[in-house]
Amino acid sequence: MSSVHLLLGTLENFVSAVILWVMRGVFRLRHSDQRTVAVMLGIAAVLLCWHTTTGKQETLEPKTYKFRIDLNETTHGELQTLHGIGPKLAESIIQYRDQHAPIHDFDEIMNVRGIGKKRYTTMKPYFID
User: Fold this and answer.
1) Taking a C-beta distance cutoff of 8 angstroms, is the pair 69, 126 a contact?
2) How far is CA 25 from CA 14, 28, 33, 39, in A?
3) Backbone angles phi, psi at 69, to 5 degrees
4) Distance (Å, rounded) from C-alpha 107 to C-alpha 100?
5) Is 24 left (phi over 0), alpha (psi -120 to 50) or beta?
6) 69 neighbors 78 (Cβ within 8 angstroms)
7) Prior bond to 102 cis, omega within 30?
8) What angle do CA 58, 63, 65 make, to 5 degrees?
9) How many of the other CB atoms lie within 10 Å of CB of 70?
10) How far, in Å, are 22, 47, 58 from residue 3 at the CA level?
């Protein structure tokens, strides 16, 4: 069910309840005031439907990075800017790099504890080979 249909259904239920309250005497409005309220509710419904159908829909897009990192020169902070790399993993990568420098092939990064095939494939586009 689309959001417009859901909204219209909710609005219809609300208006129906208000009309019943008015008919039962819960709200004691003059006839002219009742027309004013009806017109205002109608305008609100039209504006709400219009906004819902023409409003900008927000979509969540994954972060994309416009830079590439050299594994042999990267800092702890630069590593943490990448998705899925926290302080502990960044420290492990730097320790591995310091022990095995220079790293000539990015595939060596899979030797770091905590980097498996899935994390490797998400990291690879952000590093210079």
Assistant:
1) yes
2) 17, 6, 14, 20
3) -110, 140
4) 13
5) alpha
6) yes
7) yes
8) 140
9) 12
10) 28, 14, 14
Query: pLDDT by residue for the chain (129 residues), tens digit each?
Result: 566 667 667 767 777 776 766 666 666 667 787 788 788 888 888 877 777 777 666 666 665 656 778 888 888 888 888 877 889 988 998 998 888 878 888 888 888 888 888 888 888 888 876
Model-level pTM?
Answer: 0.48
Residue with tokens 């972060």: 63
Q: What is the CA radius of gyration of the chain?
A: 30
Specify the long-range contacts of residues 61-69, CB closer than 8 Å, at least 24 apart: 65/126, 67/126, 68/125, 68/126, 68/127, 68/128, 69/126, 69/127, 69/128
Contact 76, 89 (CB under 8 A): no
Residue 53 token pair: 């159908």
**CB-based contacts of 6: which residues, under 8 Å, 6+ apart?**
none
Of 84, 107, 83, 79, nearest in space to 95 by CA? 79
Query: Tokens 């239920």 belong to which residue?
Result: 13
